[in-house]
Structure prediction request, 245 residues.
Amino acid sequence: MNETIKSENKISETREFIVNSASLKEVRSFSREVFEKIKIDQDLKDELVLAIAEAAQNIVKHAYKDIETNDDKMEIKISLGKNDELEIGFFDKGKPVDGAKVRHRNIDDVKPGGLGTFFIQQIMDAVVFREGEKPWINHIILTKQL
Amino acid sequence: MTYKVSEEGNISTVFLNGEIDMDVVDKAKELIMPLIEAKKEVHINLKDVQYMDSSGISVLIESHQKALEVGTKVTLKEISKSVLKVIMMAKLEQILNLD
Prediction:
């Protein structure tokens, strides 16, 4: 078996979650379930789960900021191609996010908040913000070469 | 997340257990901040915390800074491997009191 191949088969799994903080635990469970099928070490799995949970948290905190009650769902799609590139797509119907304005805080300016985006950028190779295709408003893509 | 608090003299030890994310951070803050405001020395035991995200790290920062402000101290005890990794990713190992 070629050791560079992290999965025998292409993986593409999608799940919807209600947009609220209580769903973050389910987001982590879903991510862990998918990563069980991929031959990567546990530390990397834990980092990827953190990156996914932080991105989902950003949707709850920012894309849905000031939206009091809703039963909207966000969708997360985890895909691994044969070239071992992991792609994680996030789709939501919140307020449009301008990717150019998404910045983590200065890491040396120690204060609460602003770390989620920093963690995502530390863990993933790339973060791309796109306008979502209907019915979605935002489409965020995280990628990492495994 | 579940928790237990023990008291010994002026030291309050908060034992946190489970996964600490945005959904439970308010509960963690409500538990820890009054102890700091009462000028207790607070030990936060993280042995049984299997997961902590940026929200949880923010509570640790806020607790540390509040303790400095009121003249007491927060020390993180028995930090689990997964939490330590996140603390280090945030470059806080030289800022927070780790034991």
In short: The first helix of chain B runs from residue 25 to 37. Strands of chain B lie at 2-8, 11-20, 41-52, 74-77, 97-98. The domain at 2-98 of chain B is CATH 3.30.750.24 (Transcription Regulator spoIIAA). Chain B has three helices and five strands.
